[in-house]
Amino acid sequence: MRIGLIGLGRIGSFHADTLAGLETVDELVVTDPVAAAVDAVTGRIPQARAVDSPQALLDSGVDGVVIAAATNTHAELIRAAVAKGVPTFCEKPVAGTIAESLAVERAVAGSDVPVQIGYPRRFDPAFVAARDAVRAGELGRITTVRSTTLDPAPPPAAYLAVSGGIFRDCSVHDFDAVRWVTGQEVVDVHAVGAVDPDAPEEMYAANGDHSSASVLLTLADGTIGVVSNTRTNGRGYDVRLEVHGVRDAVAAGLDEGLPLRSTQPGVTWPSGPAHEFFMDRLAQAFRLELAAFTRVATGAIDNPCTVADAMGTAWTAEAATLSASEHRPVSLEEVRGTAMQ
Q: Where in this chain does the record put each Gfo/Idh/MocA-like oxidoreductase N-terminal domain (predicted)?
C-alpha cells in the first residue's frame, strides 16, 4: 500500500516510523511545511518520499491518508481527502471547534469514504481486556470508572495556542476511553481546572487553558466517571483506567512502568523504569491502530471509530470546557442545544 502522511511534528514523525514498520505499507508520501521535519523523516525512512503540499499528496494516488497536522487544520484536510475519495485516518479530535466538527460530520455522513478518528486506547491490550470484562458482565453493575492521563511535560506553547485547550486535546482520550469501555454515553459534566503559577502566560492564561484538570462525569446508566489530567507529572507518563463494579474491579495500566512511587514500607512495585511518554506507553496501541486503518482503507474491516462515534467525545469535551469556564455543571443536552441554534 501507498499511505500518505500529512504533518510531521511530534506525533506525525512517530507515526511515520510506525507506518514504515507495517508489512502492508510499501511507500510513504509525506508533507509538512517545515522542511527540517520532512528531511528528518525522508532521511531515516527509505520508503518515504516528500511532496510540497497536502493537495499534491492527495493527488499522488495514495491508498489512504493519515492526518497528523495541527488540530485547527483537521476539518479542512478531512473534507479534502473525502472529496478526493481517499480513506482517511485523522488524529483526535475531529476538528478544532464543535462547529467545525459538526460540519465534518455532515460532510462525511453521506459518503462511503471511511474516516477513522484516532483514539489509540481502543487498541491498547489492557484497555481492550477491561472492555471485554465489562461487556461480559464479569464486574456486575459498574459503579465508578476512573481514567487518568498525566503528561510528564507540557507541549510547546505553539501547540497549546491551537489545541483547543486541555479538555479538547488531552481529556478527550479519557472521555473516549470511558465511553468505549462502558458502552455508555456521558449526560452531565462538572469540570475544574487550575493553572501552574510558574508557567509563562502564553502557555495557558493567554489561551484560557489549564495545566491541570479534573472532570466528574455522569453516564446514562448512572455510573460515575472520574477523569484526572495534568500537563506536568514529574515521575513520568501515566495512563490508567480503573473500572469498579459490584462484583469485581479491573485496571488497565498497572505495569512495571507505572510512574508512581509507593510509600508503603517494604513495597518495591512498580520496579520501573517509569514510562516517559506516549511513544513508549502506547507504542503497541498505535501500531495496532494504524494497522487497523490499513485494513479499513481496503474494506477488510469496519471502521473502529467513525466521526459520528467520536462526536460523543467531542460533545463531552465541549461541556467540560464550558463547565470549567463557568464553574458549574453542564449537560451535554445544553451544549448540543446551544450549538444547534
A: 1-119
Size of the chain, expressed as the number of residues it contains:
341
122-277+312-335 folds as Dihydrodipicolinate Reductase; domain 2 (3.30.360)
Helices of type H across the chain? 10-20, 35-44, 54-58, 74-84, 98-109, 125-135, 157-163, 166-169, 171-182, 278-281, 283-297, 307-326, 332-340
- For residue 127, give every residue at least 6 positions away whose Cβ sits within 8 Å of its Cβ, in sequence order, or none: 121, 177, 180, 181, 241, 252, 285
What's the grid cell of residue 55?
A: 493537495
Domain map (residue ranges) of the chain: 2-119+287-306, 122-277+312-335
Q: What is the per-residue pLDDT for 311? A: 97
pLDDT given for residue 159 in this prediction: 85
Q: Would you place residue 155 in the very low, low, confident or very high pLDDT band (cuts 50, 70, 90)? A: confident
Report the mean per-residue pLDDT for the chain: 96
- Judged against a pLDDT cut of 80, whether residue 14 lies above it is answered with yes
Name the nearest CA neighbour of 193 among 174, 211, 175, 172: 211
> Which one is predicted more confidently, 159 or 167?
167
pLDDT value at 326 more than 90:
yes
Phi, psi of 121 (to 5 degrees): -65, -20
* The three grid cell numbers given for residue 11, joined into one nine-digit string: 506525533
CATH number, domain 2-119+287-306, options 2.40.50.100, 3.40.50.970, 3.90.226.10, 3.40.50.720: 3.40.50.720
> In sequence order, what are the residues at sequence separation of 6 or more whose Cβ sits closer than 8 angstroms to the Cβ of residue 14?
279, 286
